[in-house]
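Lecture notes, unit on protein representations.

Consider one protein chain, 209 amino acids long.
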Amino acid sequence: QMPGTARHDREMAIQAKRNLSKTTDPVERLRLKCLARGSAGIKGLGRVFRVMDDDNSRTLDFKEFVKGLNDYAMMIDKEEAQEIFRIFDKDGSGTIDFDEFLVTLRPPMSNARKEIIMQAFRKLDKTGDGVITIEDLRGVYNAKHHPKYQNGDWTEDQVFRAFLDNFDSPYDKDGKVTTEEFMNYYAGVSASIDTDVYFIVMMKNAWKL
C-alpha cells in the first residue's frame, strides 16, 4: 500500500461526491465525477480516449468524446457534454486536443506541488527514461516489508507490480507509469489536501525526499 494515499483517496472521493451537488460548472462537474473514482480517475479517462484515438491524431471529435465518456461509464447528458466540448474546442474546428483536455481537467496545482511530485518521480525512475517500471523499483522500494511478501503470498515482482498498479490506469494496467500518469495520480491526491506545506511534507515523508 502506498504511504498515506489510501486514506487520502477515500477522503478525496467522498469530498468530490459532496461537491458535485454544489457546482454547476460543467468542466468542474466532470472533474469531480472523475475524482469521485479516486486519484486514478482522470488518468483512466485519458487512457480510454487514447485507446479510441485510432489514427493517433491525439484529437477527438464530439462523437468520439461522448463514446469515450460512455465507455468510462460517465453518465453525462448530451447538453452537458456539448457544453464541455465547446469549452475545449476553442477554435471551433469540431475536434478537441485530448492532452490539453486532460491537463485542464486535472485539479490545478501550485508549482511547489508539481516540483515535489517530479522529485519523487525522478527518485523512482532509476533509469531516467521518463517511465517507472519494475526494474526501476528494485533499488528504491523494499518489497520485503510488504505483508503479502512476508506471508509468502506474493513474490517481490508481484509486490512491485501491485505498487505500480496504484498509479496505473484502472482499465489498462501495463506495469509502466509515465510522468503524466504520476502527475495525474498526485493531482487527485493533491485535490484533497488544502495546504502546499502539508502536501510537501506528506510527499517528503512518503518518498524520503
